[in-house]
Amino acid sequence: MKLTRLxxxxxxxxxxxxxxxxVEDCARTVAYRHALNEIRIPTLERIELYERSSGxxxxxVQKQLYRVPRAAEAAGEGDxxxxxxxxxxxxxAYIEAGLDRSDPEQRFFYCGSMYRYERPQKGRLxxxxxxxxxxxxxxxxxxxxxxxxxxxxxRRALGLEVTFEVNSxxxxxxxxxxxxALLEWGRTHYAELCDDCHQRLERNPxxxxxxxxxxxxxxxxxxxxxxxxxPCRGHFATVERLIKIADVPYVxxxxxxxxxxxYNRTTFEVTSSAVGxxxxxxxGGRYDxxxxxxxxxxxxxxxxxxxxxxxxxAISADxxxxxxxxxxAIIAIGDAAVAGAIALARELRASGLRIELLxxxxxxxxxxxxxxxxxxxxxxxxxxxxLAAGVxxxxxxxxxxxxxxxxxxxxxxxxxxxG
Length: 419
What we know:
CATH architecture of the largest domain: 2-Layer Sandwich
Oligomer: single chain
Number of helices: 18
Largest sheet: 8 strands, mixed
Helix content: 40-55%
Structural class: alpha+beta
């Protein structure tokens, strides 16, 4: 039997792996600038955590959980599953550490793999990576706006062309009226709804707006903004005002509800036309009642998650393939030159250059071809004569020119060529 990767799981090699790392590194840089602290949570959690957060009627719980029966049986701790999203686990850790009561205002970011059993397609895998941000203890609109501004900084740093969509779902005071209006609309259009929406209608009618099958029909549904109470209307107006001041381009999408039960008030998505049907690369919003629903104090919360793979898809290949190429490949000619080549590589790497040390057991022509295929701009050739004279032959692989450079000037010459 030939061993191959499982359906919906992906290997990343070379430039593809570098693209994921670049997205993660960019997100971390933005998070540090906003004074967030890192949190790392387990991959395995109790299923009850997701039933109480994502909602028993959500697709995550109904269809997508990777259940782990053997682990549950061995541990004697109830049914368990691989995490399908990050927010519930972060909240569980926040409560378990007692922060919800001792110091509720916290700012976290996380990064890691998530697992959902669903039909794989471009931009949608069964194992995928997310970078997420969660802010606890703040109910103000400024914290929602900060998240959107943070995402805008992230997309600007990567040069991404995206669309920001924002909406408000209201709160416990005004959301019931919107829910009732949606329920009535769904009953009126019952014959036109898909089978999944038939199941959702009575239990969670807001999810009718999140259905891809009935997307055209959903445009005729009631809008949440028409049912907002005065406090929710004021909250959303402040979010809009603050992101306008920050020059974040956005559109209001009154049908944006997200697929999870716990959102209230501000919700948002960032989409890219470069990804395909699965166009959302960032999504999030406010979830003020979720900490309490999971057994904690009544601490408000807001956050978002970035899809690492989808974001990488939105970046053209030439943006990161060149950035991952070596600045130079070092070729040692003869046994005596190997030690000098290793020492030179160490010095150049310490100066921040990306250096590949090639095998000394192949001929010069073969090694030059290997350096060129690897994307190196220059080859640094060291033989016994160069070693004795304290020089290096620096060959420009693009221009096919070669110069003799003093050993102490190689780093400056490569840095200058890098531009």
